[in-house]
């Protein structure tokens, strides 16, 4: 079973070394692998090239604020899990971040890949609607769960699945990272915190934005809301360092 990866600007698989830009591991040197395909469609998604393709089925044409559709063949590449593992190992990092798209849609092939990386720490970024199979879950050191709020454009019944949120809320490896565009979005986070009792210190609020200017503008008012509710703030370090670019 092959892994379907996103591509970088050269057309090769998006596998690279960088500093983790978000969440509790921000600033940590890591290897990244970005998988293609997603079961949700956020209107502000900064990796729409993993799911919004020209033509194809209706899922390929879900709304996005930029209105850009991508050529599937140019933005997806399939590789054997062993090949992906070799490319990751060659980066020489101790920790791996598996991201997407929604990476847990490919749990079977991920399990095969991780068999070839027995010593690496594993961090998975997920939208919280899916479940890792047992062979993947046993290898995960940290889940970065990013449930999608109403402003994402996803219906709550698709994006906020009680069974999955309850599972992650009770997993000590899981941290929650909410994308915030307006102050009202924090009210949704507070309601979810009340309903699922996320662990103290495990909730991050992250400003939506793909430029330093946009992030800083939102952080000005988000700071006070973090103080008010006891949430942590996540920056987007890679945006400040590299801009909104693939492979960073």
Describe it:
The chain is α/β, with parallel strands linked by helices. It has one domain (10-34, 80-242): Alpha-Beta Barrel (TIM Barrel), CATH 3.20.20.70. The chain is 31% helix and 19% strand. The strands form two sheets. An eight-stranded mixed β-sheet has the order 2-3-5-6-7-8-9-10. Strands 1-4 form a two-stranded antiparallel ribbon. Strand 9 (203-207), helix 8 and strand 10 form a beta-alpha-beta unit. Helix 2 (81-90) crosses helix 3. The longest helix has 18 residues, at 212-229. The radius of gyration is 17 Å and the shape is globular. The mean pLDDT is 96.
Task: Give me a quick take on this structure.
The chain has 248 residues and is of the alpha/beta class. It has one domain: TIM Barrel, CATH 3.20.20.
């Amino acid at each position: 079973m092959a892994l379907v990866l996103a591509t970088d600007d050269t057309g090769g698989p998006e596998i690279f070394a960088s500093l983790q830009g978000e969440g509790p591991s921000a600033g940590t040197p890591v290897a990244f692998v970005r998988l293609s395909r997603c079961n949700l469609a956020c209107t502000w998604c900064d990796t729409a090239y993993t799911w919004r393709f020209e033509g194809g089925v209706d899922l390929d044409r879900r709304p996005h604020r930029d209105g850009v559709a991508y050529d599937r063949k140019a933005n997806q590449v399939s590789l054997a899990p062993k090949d992906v593992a070799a490319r990751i190992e060659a980066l020489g990092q101790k920790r791996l971040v598996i991201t997407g798209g929604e990476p847990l849609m490919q749990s079977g092939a991920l399990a095969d890949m991780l068999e070839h990386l027995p010593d690496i720490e594993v961090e998975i970024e997920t939208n919280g609607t899916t479940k890792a199979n047992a062979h993947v879950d046993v290898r995960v050191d940290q889940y970065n769960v990013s449930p999608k709020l109403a402003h994402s454009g996803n219906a709550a019944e698709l994006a906020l699945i009680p069974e999955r949120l309850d599972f992650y809320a009770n997993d000590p490896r899981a941290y929650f990272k909410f994308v915030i565009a307006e102050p009202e979005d924090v009210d949704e986070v507070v309601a979810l915190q009340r309903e699922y009792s996320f662990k103290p210190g495990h909730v991050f609020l992250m400003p939506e934005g793909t430029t330093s200017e946009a992030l800083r503008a939102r952080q000005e008012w988000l700071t006070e809301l973090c103080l008010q509710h006891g949430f942590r703030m996540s920056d987007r370090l890679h945006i400040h360092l590299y801009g909104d670019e693939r492979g960073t």
